[in-house]
Every structure is written in structure tokens, then in C-alpha cells.
Amino acid sequence: MSKDFNIQITRTTCPKAKPDEANLGFGRIFTDHMFLMDYTTENGWHNARIEPYHALAMDPASMVFHYAQECFEGLKAYRRPDGKVQLFRPMKNIERMNRTNRRLCIPELDADDALKAIQTLVKLEEDFVPSLDGTSLYIRPFIIATEPHLGVKPADSYLFCIILSPVGAYYKEGLNPVKIFVEDEYVRAVKGGIGYAKAGANYVASLAAQVKAHELGYSQVLWLDGVEHKYVDEVGAMNIFFVLEGEVVTPELVGSILPGVTRDSCINLLRSFGYTVNERRISIDEIIAAHENGKLLEVFGTGTAAVISPVGELNAHGKKMTIGTGEIGTLSQKLYDTLTGIQWGKLEDTFNWTVGIDA
Ligand code: COI
To answer: How far is it, in rounded angstroms, from Cα 172 to Cα 12?
Structure first.
């Protein structure tokens, strides 16, 4: 922790009514407070504070508006059966945020300060952590370049902000299988680019393909590599896993893929179940062939927001492949039950992944 890291807290005088837990949706409801911290080249990160949730007043020349110097993270707080609240592997998100920062020339955060900021804010908003099955409090830390300047260069001032949103399922399908369109026209990222960074810019690059997929009746896009349009990268808001005969495959982290915290957790869980998990290149042709030979047993996506999302149909080059029976597979279900069991404190956390909110 940096030696003088203190968080000044100003409480709201008009608390919001708590939302209906049965109708949270994803990312539309926000809590009473937000965390803020400024950066300047002279003072480094300073002025850590929690304030009532409010709109930001910004100079229209702020560099984030023009050159997208911005990064974000996504993690969750969960209500345990005993009523306590816990986080899931928060340091993994903070470490990833700092890897993103290095790539985007944003000053790094002190990891312990960032954890304390998350814990302090979640503790203050503890009553917003829902308890209904499948719900949680989504935590969205982000950093934006605030220097008013139209030259292209790393900014010399930034704002680090954390907002909180009580959420239900990310997809309207919940744990029901989603239909995914394999995109072979647009690309999301290339090796050497920023694909591995959690930058808003990666998500804007995905929108046109997402709109196209939605128009065709699909929930998400499966991205192929940006050079040969042949190897699988990831899905819009998730990493992807293929259960084949004898192995579970997920694309290796070659620089264009987001290193998901849920991805890593699933690899560990699958290995603990006794499965062989290979992080390797897998081409869409291999997947089509495995499907034709009856060897493509299950497909699922993983992500903080999406959790485990079974895939019921893949459309590759106009070829529609129903995965298994089109229903959730047994391994996807087991993985979901185990992962969420640990996250919601219903199963023993043998991996030591959960962290309390007392800073
Ligand atoms: C997350 O899973 O937290 C993500 O960042 C996905 C998000 C773009 C909704």
C-alpha cells in the first residue's frame, strides 16, 4: 500500500431505493456512491475519494474523447449464504488492469491501493449486493485520460473511477444456450495490437459485427484470428472452450485474446475434475470436422459478466452446427455449479480464490 493512501468519504444525503432483485438485468442500475482518484505527472495518483454517484464534468478536449486512451475492468462481489460479501480473485483483475495500462501508456496503479479502493466502496454499498440466485454486484473500475489536448501522445492527467451495478444474467438467455455467429469479414484484434488489453477500443471494434450477428438472429460473434481468418480467438464478451473427445481446448493467449480471469479459473477447475485442457490454436475447420464426426461434445463461453455460457449453435460460413442436443451440456453445468458455488460461498474454496471486503 502506498504510505499515504487515504480515502476521503462523502456520503450521499439521498440514498436510492434498492432495486427489485428479480429484474436487475445487466449494467443499468448504479449504487449510491463512486470511487475517484486523480493522476497528474507532478503528483502521481492522489486525492482518493468516495463521493455520491454523479455525472462527470469534463473538458471536451479531454484526450479520452478523441484518442480513446481508456481502460476498464470487470469483477463481482457476491452475497454468501451466511450474509457476508466476498470478491472473486480481485488481484487478477488489478494485475490485468496494470498490464493494460502498460500497453496503453496509462500510469499503473498501486495494486494494494486499488484493492483497498474496491473493498472500501463495496463495503460502503454492501446493502446493494443482491442475494437472489444468480445475482451479484458488478464492479467496474476504469481509467480515462483527462488532459485537454488534441495532440496524439500519452496524456499527463487521468481519472480512476469505480462504479458498482447490481446485476442478474448478462445474456437474456441466462444459462440457456446462446447462438453464436462465426465472423469471417471483420476482425477484432491482431498479434502486436491491443487485443489482450481490456481497452474500450477493443469493444467498439466489435460493434459492427455484433449488429450484423444480431440481425441474423445470433447473440454474439466468434472472432477468428486477424491474419488468416482461420483460428478461433474469442467471443464478444467471453473466452471460448470446446469439449472434444479426450481434451478440452481453449485458444492459447497469443496477444490478440483477452486473458480472462474466468477462463483461468475454468482451466484450473477442469484440470481438478481430471480433464486434459489444452491451450492451443484451434481452427474453425477443425471444429467443423469434429462436429461432422460427432466429436464436438460441448462448447461454452466464460467471462465475469457471462459466467459460463453454453453455446447451442454455431454458424460458420453459413453452416449451422447444433452443439450436442442444443441444451446445456453436463460438463458446462458441472463447471457452472462449481464455479458459482465457490463465488457465492456455497462450496469450499479449495483454491483460495475468494477475498473479503474488509480493507
Ligand atoms: C466482463 O466479463 O466483465 C466484461 O468485461 C465483459 C463486458 C464487456 C460486459
So the answer is: 32
